[in-house]
Design a protein that fits this description.
With 125 residues, this protein is of the alpha+beta class. The protein contains four helices and three strands. The chain binds L-tyrosinamide.
C-alpha cells in the first residue's frame, strides 16, 4: 500500500528576536522548525525494464545482457531469458526513471553493435 504524504508549504521564517519558534543565534543563521511531513523524503516512482522476444537474438546474448546490465546470476538470467522466449516479454529489473532509461539505452546499444534486433522498453510500475 502506498502512503500518501501531504507536502506542506514552508513555515514562515523567524529571525532572532522575532518571537517564539525561531532557531536563530548570534551568527544570524536562521533555522526553521519543520513538520514531520516536510522532513520525510518520498520514494521515487519505479520503472520496469522489459525485454521483448524476437526470433534472431541468440539466447546466450540475452543471458549475458541480463548478467552484465541487470546484475542477475546465471540461473536468474537463464530463467528470465526463457520466460521472455516463451511469453514474448519479461521484466529484467525495476529501477528509478534515469537508471531504467540508461539500462534500456545500453541494452539496445550493445544489441545494435552486435546487429541483433533485441529490444528493451520501460514501463511505470
Ligand atoms: N527467441 C530467441 C531465440 O530463440 C531468444 C530470445 C530470448 C531473444 C529473449 C530475445 O529478449 C529475448 N534465439
Amino acid at each position: 500500500m502506498k502512503e500518501k504524504v501531504k507536502i506542506l508549504r514552508p513555515m514562515a521564517r523567524r529571525r532572532e528576536g522575532e518571537g517564539a519558534g525561531g532557531g536563530g543565534d548570534q551568527s544570524g543563521i536562521v533555522t526553521e522548525r519543520r513538520t514531520r511531513e516536510q522532513t520525510r523524503t518520498k520514494r521515487p516512482p519505479l520503472y520496469k525494464c522489459i525485454l521483448l522476444n524476437d526470433d534472431y537474438t541468440p539466447m546466450e546474448f540475452v543471458v549475458e545482457i541480463l548478467k552484465s546490465i541487470f546484475h542477475r546470476s546465471h540461473a536468474e538470467a537463464t530463467r528470465i531469458m526463457l520466460h521472455v522466449h516463451q511469453n514474448g516479454m519479461g521484466v529484467a529489473g525495476v529501477y528509478p526513471f534515469e537508471i531504467a532509461e540508461t539500462k534500456v539505452k545500453t541494452v539496445e546499444e550493445l544489441a545494435r553493435e552486435s546487429q541483433f534486433p533485441l529490444k528493451c522498453v520501460m514501463e511505470k510500475e
